[in-house]
Write a structure and sequence with these properties.
binds cobalt (II) ion; 31% strand; 167 residues; alpha+beta; globular; 4 helices
Length: 167
């Protein structure tokens, strides 16, 4: 495994739509391993392939319930809504409120190409929605309804450990 460089929001690649993964080969496995290592090292809860410069539909997420790898993910159903603060490993100084579905059903493939389907809610659903937006070239700062000063959420950050980590 190797750490990869995280692309900053100023770079065009984060604004591009990602292509489907078609080869479930060793290269994909290496990419997913590297993405997980890079995410953990940066203390994030999610990372999408374009954030390491690869325009393919692959994301990793770990909100404290173990590592989830999603290849060619698609939200097939969503329910309710939630509003909460998000950050992003590509936007180191930005935090803002984003409205997301409270519950989603996501369909994807694993690293071997096997179909998977998951029902996720609350913070887990938020993290996955955030990563899927990256695959469309969308950043949370584009859709946040209110940006917040990191100092103002510092206390809250400590109270709700893990909930404010970057994606
Ligand atoms: Co992000």
């Amino acid at each position: 495994m190797a750490l990869r460089k995280i692309v900053n929001k100023s770079e065009d690649i984060l604004r591009k739509k990602c292509k489907l993964v078609v080869n479930f080969d060793e290269k994909l496995g290496i990419l997913l391993d590297d993405m997980a290592e890079t995410m953990y090292k940066a203390n994030g809860v999610g990372l999408a392939a374009p954030q390491v410069g690869i325009l393919r539909r692959a994301v990793v997420v770990d909100v404290g319930e173990g590592l989830l790898e999603l290849v060619n993910p698609e939200i097939i159903k969503s329910k309710g809504s939630q509003r909460g603060v998000e950050g992003c490993l590509s936007c180191p100084d930005d935090w803002g409120y984003v409205v997301r579905p409270n519950e989603i059903i996501v369909k994807a493939q694993d690293r071997t190409g096997k179909d998977i389907q998951l029902k996720l809610k609350e913070f887990f659903a938020r993290a996955v929605c955030h990563e899927l937006d990256h695959l469309e070239g969308q950043l949370f700062i584009d859709i946040a309804d209110e940006m917040v000063d990191p100092d103002e959420i510092e206390n809250e950050k400590q109270d709700r450990k893990g909930k404010r980590r970057k994606r």
